[in-house]
Amino acid sequence: MTPPTPSAAAPLEVTDESAPASPAPATSQGNESRSPGRLAWTRFKRDKTGVVSAGIVIFFFVIALAAPLIAKLYGKDPYTTYASQRPELLNAFSYPAGPNGGMSSEFWFGIEPQLGRDVFTFLLYGIRTSLGIALAATLLTCLVGVVVGITAGYLGGRTDYFVGRVIDILLSFPSTLFFIAFMPVVYGLFVADDENIPTSLRAVSLILVLAVFGWASLARLLRGQVLGLREREFVEAAKVTGASPWRIVFKELLPNLWTPIIIQSTLMLPAFVTAEAGLAFLGVGIIDPTPDWGVMIQRGAQFYTEDITFMLFPGLSMVIFVLAFNLLGDSVRDALDPKSKR
Amino acid sequence: MSNATPLLDVSGLTKHFPIKGGFPIPRTVGAVRAVDGLDFQVGEGESLGLVGESGCGKSTTGRLITRLLEPTGGKVAYRGQDITHAGRKQLAPIRSEIQMIFQDPYASLNPRQTVGKIISGPMEINGINPAGGREKRVRELLEIVGLNPEHYNRFPHEFSGGQRQRIGVARALSLEPKLIVADEPVSALDVSIQAQVVNLLQKVQQDLGIAFVFIAHDLAVVRHFSQRVAVMYLGKIMEIADRDDLYGNPRHPYTRALLSAVPEATVDDTPRERIRLVGDVPSPINPPSGCRFRTRCWKATEKCATEVPPLVQVEGNRPGHLTACHYPETPETVPGPRLAKNPEAAA
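Structure tokens for the assembled complex are given below, as produced in the milestone run.
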């Protein structure tokens, strides 16, 4: 942005009566400025674990996004029961006839026992569903957490007290138990007992319920950060120049809060993936025949004594994804917050 | 020094911080009387130094003038306009005229903003569009405060403490203020850097004709910088005078004690009399009756405990030299190391 004139710039550092002892020799050369964000990026790039994890996470998101395209090229879909057209795929006990769960050049990851669906496309679409729900829940949670946390921290007083008690209650709630008990009630609000629950409603309810219990911890964290920041002198400096509360929140405070927000959300997303899968496994989240990580694991659990291959693919892929995402979260934290070295 | 229409007129300024207590039902159980009835004026282009021990209410006074805090009582008038309880919208036109320089250069700059953004922010908020654009103006300001204009896109973490304080000065200057409240602007800096920043502030004051309220606990810095000096103790002004009067002819026992505590650099001189104050500063929650200094004053009598000494021009003082003491030091009894050594400073 600025013209590179280091030689002409150097004498200007000398003041009226004294040369400021420039302790950082880096300040005297060149004009490139290294923002805190760019410094973090440099640190992140040096972290091999983080880079590999990021690659894996990006790979998962890409295949989730491109699932329809991959399925089209592959020539199968996750809903067709291939065994009903070709009974030779399953044996007399409804287990895949071929070795290793029926893995072949045609069915890459084998076929499902009993119904005979294609495992590869089912997994692709399952990842798509699970990641979509987890991502939406994370975004919603962050939005609510950031708004509530900053409001409570900045306004303080009665608002802070009230919000603090709500957070206390939410954090002390046995949320998993609540999900199981409460999900049917949520469905009941929208759909009559005898009707089928549409998948979109299931997904939306899941996102909402996960977000309702997720925002509290982020809000509490940000409230504390804001409490610390709002007494800092740069906020007072902004007030002295007549800045509005909105400007102080968005221009002065929020840029200083991106670090905890990013760290929290990278740790939150894998937690939501497992929570969503857990609910699907327990039968209160997404249910068969909608492809989903949790649904696949639930189906796999029924057959694992006879056909471990079917359980292996969703289980292994999920472990890899959650592990990679958590490691990524750690690396992001280390890059953004170099003081908190483990 | 104060003429007919002072730039800043403070009268009876009071700030009490409530102390909340009581378990089931929180209620106010007391108050910290941080600032308890201040009267002073600051004229156009004048620099008033505010000195005192830690916790005597100096910084609170600065924050009351800039209206970062809401005064409990009293009046703050800027150019005759009462701004004691003005809201943000009412203050808007005055905001650009009263600016502040902060103590901690590491906390007073937003770490996520570039220097350019930090300095142009006040102009953006107040809708000021200088000729040639804001960026040009920021570069000018950086040059005024002795920084490289090429540092426009740098972040605060790339600067040293002294350089950061210069950025803080540039930010305060960006609105072309008439009054700057400097809250211990150099106390967080190295001694070698302190002189640079004080000289910068002095240059700014002289070149641009900006009035200063200079808060410090370093008597030498205040002496160097301020034309008038006020000595505070426990939320009250003990003595206020022109610089040379105050340093050369202190009338309040507390001022004398403070001045005698300044370390001397000369060795060939006969050691001067040192006044050692005994005890601690009383709690501002429950200040002593009458004169606040009486608990540590060697001259205190019954009268000091019952009557609050008014801040007046005591006998033998020049106009504008006000002292709040029943038994002021007589000019003759002042051995005055400063008097003896600095004849030009003598009253």
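The longest helix of chain B spans residues 191-208. Chain B touches chain A through 54 residues (CB under 8 Å). Further analysis is deferred to the final report.
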